[in-house]
């Protein structure tokens, strides 16, 4: 179940912005009265190699706690997730497509996740798409968030979240269910061919640490949900995180790990923190 959460994180995008940032995943937060620095790191939620480099490990050692998008250590997490996975008002996948289209989706899901659409007919389609991410990799699934948690636990430090799982799941209620199921049907009909190509592009760009280019690749995706709902999926969440980050870093040096798509752009976390008076600089 935790794997599904990591996968869901990887499906957000935002439009391209001017004044590109440096090519870096690790950023140091200082200034504005802080006595000790904190760090901001851009993650990728599905990858073939989640190895953390020396600079990132050093930043984890220098900080005293880890903040991810949500608290992955919450013992109530799985229960809360199950409660929020279904569509509201009795909407089902089968009610949004024709009988023929439902058969296509059903056969596709049985083939790729081993579950019939009839069993998960009430699930939000966007979340079903996220469960397919491991199928887009030609390797064993790995997650950078899992690696960050592993190091944090070895250091006997705590893991926290910038938002709750409830906040995350409510995002998918703001995107029309019809749009979500249309995207799922398109994925089923292509049998993941286009999605695999796009996933490879994202991973290749991530390796270069070019967070601005990642936004371009993701915004040009054949998946129109990201481009059409960027405020809900990314921008609004970035803005909501800033007061949380500010409160935390004033009291405790902290390592923040969020999807790399959240970092770049005028409404990305880096520039939003700079607008609040903090120095946010790339760690090479």
From TrEMBL:
* InterPro entries xref list: TraB/PrgY/GumN_fam, YbaP-like
Q: Which residues form a coiled coil?
A: 178-209
What CDD domains does the annotation carry? Answer: Tiki
Q: Which UniProt keywords apply?
A: Coiled coil, Signal
| Claim: Coiled coil is one of the keywords in the record | yes
Pfam families recorded: TraB_PrgY_gumN (PF01963)
Which first-to-last residue range defines the signal peptide? 1-18
Q: Does Mitochondrion appear among the keywords? A: no
Q: What is this protein called?
A: TraB/GumN family protein
Task: Provide the species name.
Answer: Flavobacterium tibetense
